[in-house]
Give the backbone structure.
Amino acid sequence: MSNDNIRAEQGNGGLNRRDFVGDGLRTAGVVGLAGLAGFLAGRRSNSAETVWQIDPLKCVACENCATECMLDQSAVRCVHEFAMCGYCELCTGYFEPETVELNTAAENQLCPTGAIKRQFIEEPYFEYKIDRPLCIGCGKCVKGCSTFGNASLYLQVDPKLCVGCNECAIAKSCPSEAFVRVPASRPYIRKPANES
């Protein structure tokens, strides 16, 4: 098309090929951006409806929860399922395996931060409670309790601490693929008492 024809079409209010293609590309761009915005909004609402959690039946207490979280202190904490606990004097989730004396000295405890508090109930029973702010989610107590005890200690993501990363760094590094998304209305996965 010659320049004279283009000018003639523009002068008559007509649309030339360049304008037609330009308008088409702009329209396609707007439609594409609207579609992308809708897709991202759908993903955000899906993320808000679910949270990260650890399946206690898959967790191997690898210690990645303490080191791989993007937060300064991991959002993972130990929980104690008291219904499964034997209230043992020698708790293998509390004491080091080679413990000589059953006392609460730091060198006898598995937990590197002293997050498990041991309290005498009555002979021969003791109760073990988790001081959640001290817990770093390392899983040493979980491993001890699972190896030698009844597995009443296990790890869970605290939904109040977790920022809900779309691609959780701990989940990516989890060797047993124990990290799963669960409904935000039921953010914890309780360990069944018969699965110890």
Observations:
- The first strand starts at residue 50 and ends at 54.
- The beta strands are 50-54, 76-80, 116-122, 125-130, 153-157, 179-183.
- The chain has two domains: 3-49, 52-195.
- The CA atoms of residues 111 and 190 lie 22 Å apart.
